[in-house]
Amino acid sequence: MKKQSLDIWVGLFVALGLLALLFLALKAGNMSAFTFEPTYQVSAKFDNIGGLKPRAPVKSAGVVVGRVAEIRFDDQSYQATVVMNFETRYQFPKDSAAKILTSGLLGEQYIGIEAGGDETMISQGGKLVQTQSAIVLENLISQFLYNKASDSGPADKK
Length: 158
Known about the structure:
Elements: H1 2-28, E1 39-46, E2 57-60, E3 63-74, E4 79-87, E5 97-102, E6 109-114, E7 126-128, E8 130-132, H2 137-151
Parallel strand pairs: 1-7, 2-6, 5-8
Antiparallel strand pairs: 1-4, 2-3, 3-4, 5-6
């Protein structure tokens, strides 16, 4: 009887360990972000998406209102087209703006939505026209270094 009780406890411990590993794998792969809420698709074009990835959050006022569904390259305009799935309970005006932002200094990138003032709401298949691309850290550093180098150039002597 004692051996059977021990076997049950070991089995429960192993099952809990496997569930914990599954949970960690889903969190690491951002797969736990699936929702069963009905959604509608909206697209936006960006000059530079930085490190934005599919399934990245779409936030407005800090609240997750959707997810990035797909990222593709438009070879006509040479821009990245980002397709987002917004939950239908969140409606945004047609003149809303989309920005690619970063969580913290070096955190994950997400899309931030700033609501506009238009009376009509964006619907399935709509496009956000006002966009702001990602700020690439390497570009900022090189621009800073270039400005510093030009400031410390040869001084004009009068």
